[in-house]
Specification:
two-stranded antiparallel sheet
Length: about 260
Amino acid sequence: MQSPGSIIFTLGPLVIRWYGVMIALGFIAATYFAHRLAKGYSIDPDKLVNTILVSFIGGIVGGRLYFVALEWPTFALHPENILATWQGGLSIHGGMIGCVLTAYAYCRFNKIPFLKALDIGGIVVSLGQAIGRWGNFFNNECFGGPVDPSFPFRLYIPEEMRPAKYQNESYFHPAFLYESVWDLLIFLLLYFYLGEKLKKYPGVTFMVYLALYSIGRLPIELLRTDSIMKFGIQVPVIASIITLVIAIAGIALFMAKYRKEESST
């Protein structure tokens, strides 16, 4: 497996890149399935689409700000690259924070049931992530340690993109692929099975999504050679652990609340 390059084509000053296209395709796919789910959650489909659009923008902003903050020494030297999202550099965890905060504000302002909208988001965002991760493939990023040329899942990384200590290696774990497959499995599980079962417990489906995503992200992140490091620690690993703890606590609290309500009726 080898990236054909990050650029699809250029037309004068216009440059169309695979990274942006894959993010856009992920957004379109997620929006399509969210629209299909809306009526089952008693939400106006058009209002939900507007919520997704606004929260998507918030997620892009949050993901970029999070990434820039963690890599500030580099961006301080090259501030012109802060807005260059087409080169990669969107943090999933920062994107989650941006999405949730923006969705909450929009839902409150437009009287949309926030927890139900959040549950739909939890179902479909995993599909968007599964597709969007392929943008990393075209950018030659999100890869793990070196593997033998005979390894069935191997990704060729050009010399200029390899970490210094792996200059003599050619093939690496395609971490982006592992995560893409995991995200797709989460979507299938939530869309076709768990989402329906948990529909009467608003907020729980989203927490299940967070838990499942974090469980898969942890081992994949430990494989990566390009993970963001601070004080010798992989920041996304810590973020995934915190997210997992929040998700488990959220599931427990929501279910305790709903069980109590059911027993009192």
